[in-house]
Amino acid sequence: MMTTLMQDVRYALRHLRKTPAFTAAAVLTLALGIGANAAIFTLVNAVLLENLPVVDPKTLVHLGDSNDCCVGYGVPEDGDYSIFSTDAYQQLKKNAPEFEDLAAMQAGFTFRPVIARRNGTQERARSMMGEFVSGNYFRTFGLRPQAGRLFADADDVEGAPIVAVMSYQTWKNDYIADPAVVGSTFFVNTKPVTIAGIAPEGFYGDRLSSTPPDFYLPIEAMPALANAPYVQDPDAKWLYMIGRVKRGTAPAQLQAKLSGLLQQALAPTRTYSSKDNQAQLPKMHIVLTPGGAGIQDMQEEYASHLRLLMWISGLVLLIACANIANLLLVRGTGRKAEMSVRTALGAVRGRLVGQLLTESMVLAALSGMAGLAVAYAGTRMLLALAFPGAQSVPIHASPSLAVLGFACGMSLLTGVLFGVAPAWIAAQAQPADALRSGARTTAGGASMLQRGLVVIQAALSLVPLVGAGLFSQSLNKLQSTDLKLESKNRYILHINPQAAGYSQRQVGDLYRTIEERFHALPGIEKIGICTYTPMEDNNDGWNVQVQGQPDLNLHASYVKANTEYFESVGTHVLMGRGIGVQDTSTSATVAVVNESFVKKLFKPGENPIGHRFGTGPNSTGDYEIVGVVEDTAYTSARWKDHMMYFVPMMQRPVSAKAPIEKDEMMYAGAIVLKTERPMNDMEFLAWRTLSSINPNLSVVKFQTFAAQIADRFTEERMLTRLTMLFGGLALLLATIGLYGVTAYTVARRTSEIGIRMALGAERSKVTAMVMRGAMIQTALGLAIGIPVALLSARLVEAQLYEIKGVDASVLAAAILTLAVATAVAGFIPARRAASTDPALALRTE
After folding, report:
1. Alpha-carbon gap, residue 732 to 744, rounded angstroms
2. What H or E segment, with its residue span, contains residue 191?
3. Is a pLDDT exceeding 60 seen at residue 439?
4. Worst-scoring range by mean pLDDT, 27-36, 621-630, 779-788?
């Protein structure tokens, strides 16, 4: 059998080499289909299917079924806990022996970068990612150090010398794998920290992220390093938990036990001191979910988009396969004479089918190898689109074993499925056919199967074309939304005064110094200082209640800002005044609210100026409303009618009970600079200015305001570009398929066309005859494709912005595009048919 197979493979390779045009067309067509699918699968595999690179990931469980972030208080509405206090973690760890180890990790480390600088060097302080984790973190995952040592339990106790573990990627890329890094001292947030060891190569943390940790730090070091007051607050939820369960543990019983332990831990806290919350306590629970893939932040964010792209790339592969089937049918028909002779010489039909099927498999294998090259380039493009500017995404374009297996499997499957029918039809040739091969006939042309494949291609190609139109329309609507912002000549500097060593009582002087230093720079008009800026991935908020009115349980986001903030971002004051220089830490507490705040909490026509509100039923007198601003977009352009209020940077609510030393909202997170003109050296000027104030006051992130706004449309832009790319690819393949069948039909009907023209048929009529055949096939494809496209559009409505169903203009544009492609594909063979010389045509046989 092996000898026969090898003979068939060698014969197939010789035959493919003798027909380079056919081979190149077939390999390129299938390579595009397989490569597109392999590229998407690379991303799907890395984001949705792969486990963490740890020991025995199947025994890991995540305590919780959601990814709440980042520091929370209060009672969850459904009683479902996924984020925990330090105290709750300690109690669960102590009282749940069903775990071999139970580790905790910071929920929102990406929002709290650290400032790091190596001692004894001239390097400047840099903003880097630091994640605070429990002392048994690496042990829970079963990891060994690349160098030095990893954490021990003794490192995560109050008063222990502060140590850190550096990630392998940071060690290699930033410090050229210098062995002297282990044991050296780094200043992290101005505090000395000893590097105990290097995390193992390939480990990127407990969750897939475009910004994985550079340093791992003990939880108990967080108060000293980050001045975070909530670490030991039993009411503050800020930790995720992942544990390794002992063999033989029943998940249902463990989940029930953990829920009971959680209720015991919550009972004595301030949150559950009121009667209403005490009544809710029995509903508080934990849901255990698989933890092998870690915390599912990115998985939740990208899952729906990746599944959609898999479906679209699958359609492209189907179109490519239909093209291959057509090419093989054409080739098989052309080899009928050969098959007839071989049958006459004694070849059995099974042997002929085997030979032709082997050729299909060889063709598919060659296409699969070419498809891997397409997949590599396609994956790099996908990564650039999905994570623009990211340098440390732990997803690689190089095909993994899973991707190689996927590509090989698709190649073999397409070779078998779409090679059987052409092989069987070609093997049906009878010996007598060879004797009749010279007889002239007018009955040539494409078979019903070939025409049917073209119809299917046209139908399938319409779906991604309509999808591309819908996502393009959605993106245009998003980008044309009036955000009530002005981004021209504006720059965003993200800063971290807390990491630079400033206490809450020192930041007032810092903010005044920042304003003075930047105003001294030529070209700077306005300097806005705030906790966070519009259209960035950040949000703070509380439930609010207006004094003297019933509690409507409405949530409002809030921003702390200085006097020039509104002008710096382009938000206009509509009523009253904005934040003024008179609004100091010692003056009466005031707030500026947006239009949605007024619409939802006040009666139509009621003047909100002078009213007071607070963040809860017992604190309705926190702020006096002194102004109303327009609804500016924050976080996302999709967030409509969103209540917001703005308070002076140095003011605290009247009801604040905690001392200022525990108030993290005193720290600004960003500076907005409005300039007279574009300033290309603004980043350098910003770094120099901040460094002159304090060398540890680093620029965490620098962007133009326009770039920050554009970043919020990254996912929509990626989807739009990829659906357009796949739509174009599907159209190209369908056009090639239609051209191939039409050209083949013309070639088979050369004698007939010659006779028609000899009997007086005009060239225009011959052209129309050929074009009519091509257009009919496309029309049939449209009849099938339009209902399918309309149904498919309903399935993706959730991913579109303010679009319900298929707009007539989108559908018309897709149909017109397909019709134009059909006309081009049919016109070239039609012109060739119309230029047929009757005399030459009649002599062709």
Report:
1. 18
2. strand 191-198
3. no
4. 27-36
Query: How far is 432 from 340, CA to CA, in rounded Å?
Result: 7
3-state secondary structure string, 690-708? HHHHCCCCCCCEEEEHHHH
| Token representation of residue 352 | 């002929």
Torsion, Cα of 363, 368, 373, 377 (10° steps): 120
Hey, how many other C-beta atoms are within 10 angstroms of the C-beta on 599? 13
DSSP at 836: -
Structure tokens at 841: 């045509």
Tokens matching residue 626: 């002194």
Beta bridge partners of 194: 163, 185
Q: Tell me the whole-structure pTM to 2 decimals.
A: 0.81
Q: Which of 325, 312, 304 is nearest to 419 (CA)?
A: 325
Cβ–Cβ under 8 Å, residues 818 and 731: yes
Residue 541 sits at φ, ψ, to 5 deg, of: -170, 165
Residue indicated by tokens 């382009």: 570
Site of tokens 């904005």? 578
Per-residue pLDDT averaged across 10-35, rounded? 81
CB-based contacts of 795: which residues, under 8 Å, 6+ apart? none
In whole angstroms, give the CA distance from residue 112 to residue 576.
35
How far apart CA 428 and CA 514 sit, in angstroms, is 85
Residues 6+ apart with CB under 8 A from 351: none
Question: Max CA-CA distance within the chain?
Answer: 107
d(CA 91, CA 88): 5
Tell me the chain's radius of gyration from C-alpha atoms. 34
pLDDT level of residue 734 (50, 70, 90 thresholds): confident
Q: CA of 160: how far to CAs of 221, 230, 288, in Å? A: 8, 19, 32
Tell me if 458 sits within 8 A of 738, measured CB to CB. Answer: yes
450 with 330: CB under 8 angstroms? yes
Rounded to the nearest 10°, the torsion over CA 566, 570, 572, 577 is: 20
Yes or no: say if 181 and 171 are a contact pair by the CB < 8 Å rule. yes
Write out the two tokens for 86: 């330090």
| Distance of alpha carbon 48 from alpha carbon 308, whole angstroms | 13
Identify the helix (H) or strand (E) that includes residue 35: helix 20-44
How many CB atoms sit inside 10 A of residue 659's CB?
Answer: 9
CB atoms within 10 A of CB 473: 20
Contact 554, 601 (CB under 8 A): yes
Collapsing DSSP to helix, strand or coil, 164 comes out as strand
Closest C-alpha among 731, 798, 718, 804 to residue 464: 731
Q: Are strands 114-118 and 126-128 parallel, antiparallel or unpaired?
A: antiparallel
Give bridge partners of residue 624 from the DSSP assignment.
Answer: 590, 612
The answer to whether residues 789 and 804 touch, using CB atoms and an 8 Å cutoff, is no
Are 753 and 837 a contacting pair, CB within 8 Å?
Answer: no
Q: Compute the Cα dihedral for 497, 499, 504, 509 and give only its sign.
A: negative
CA 443 vs CA 330, 338, 439, 613, 664: distances in Å: 16, 20, 11, 86, 84
Instruction: Give the integer Cα–Cα distance in Å for 160 and 153.
Output: 10
Q: What is the chain's length?
A: 845
Q: Can you list the pairs that 659-666 forms with residues at least 24 positions away whose Cβ atoms lie under 8 Å?
A: 660/504, 660/505, 661/229, 661/503, 661/504, 661/505, 662/229, 663/229, 663/504, 664/228, 664/229, 664/230, 664/498, 665/531, 665/540, 665/560, 666/504, 666/507, 666/560
Using DSSP, state whether 635 is helix, strand or coil. Answer: coil
The tokens of 524 are what?
């700077």
491-547: per-residue pLDDT in tens? 999 999 988 889 899 999 999 999 999 999 999 999 999 999 999 988 888 889 999
- For 355-372, b where at least 16 C-beta lie within 10 A, e where not — what string? bbbbbbbbbbbbbbebbb
CA distances from 158 to 154, 223, 334, 434 (A): 9, 10, 82, 92
Cβ burial of 678 (10 Å; 0-12, 13-18, 19+) is exposed
